[in-house]
Amino acid sequence: MKNVIETEGETKEEAIEEALKELGVERDRANIEILEEPNKGLLGLRKSKARVRVTIVDHESMVVEVIEEMLKNFGVEAAIETRYEENYLWVTLSGESLSWMIGHHGQTLDAIQVLVGAIMGCKLKESARVIVDVEGYRERSQKEVRAMAERTVGKVLARGEAISLRPMNALERKLVHLVVAEYGGAKSSSIDTEPNRFVIISPA
């Protein structure tokens, strides 16, 4: 399987899409270099196409190295598993006595995720879509958030008035917005700034 390819197109986007298609990867798993801008030339003559080089980036190996170094500094051991889900790279840690890495309402885990994301962003020179989980905490939390959002939508529709939810991280807020979008007659919006940002669900 190729890890790097150069392609041409009438536009940069066309060349990029062709390269991603041939490599079989999503945009967030690739490094894109613009080798040549499209040029119509003088009076439309000697027209040149856009040319790009796209390289597959091994995010999994990179994030595992970051996590391993972090665990070493913490003085703990844990098994590390990675997977892609909806264009996010999930990193799940499992082992003994890791509950402290979760913290109250996942606050410690959120801080670790922000740190890992920042380090990955520096390495990639772009934002990294990484989710760090410990012992399946985030998966359980997502189920609880979905159930809470569904209950709250029901109350909003029944009472006809807005209801505010507790402060949540960006991942949880996104899930709430998706749940609300599944229902007619209700809408949602995020209010305040991190780490106190929360969602209000109100009648549409």
The H-and-E topology, N to C, reads as EHEEHEEHEHEHEE
Query: What count of helical segments does DSSP give?
Result: 5
Rounded mean pLDDT score: 91
Instruction: State the share of residues found in helices, binned by percent.
Output: 25-40%
Report how far the terminal alpha carbons are from each other: 49 Å
Strand order of the largest sheet: 1-3-2
Beta-strand content bin: 25-35%
Major sheet size, sense and barrel closure = 3 strands, antiparallel
- Taking all Cα atoms into account, the compactness measure Rg is 22 Å
Q: Could you name the ranges where pLDDT drops below 50 across 5 or more consecutive residues?
A: none
Summing up helix and strand content along with how strands pair, one would put the structural category as alpha+beta
Q: Could you give the count of β-strands?
A: 9
What overall geometry do the principal axes of the alpha carbons give?
A: flat
Q: Explain this structure to me?
A:
40% of the residues lie in helices and 26% in strands. It has five helices and nine strands; from the N terminus they run βαββαββαβαβαββ. The radius of gyration is 22 Å and the shape is flat. It is α+β, with helices and mostly antiparallel strands and 204 residues long. The mean pLDDT is 91. Helix 4 packs across helix 5 (170-181). The chain has a three-stranded antiparallel beta sheet, covered by helices on one side. Strands 4-5-6 form a three-stranded mixed beta sheet, sandwiched between helices.
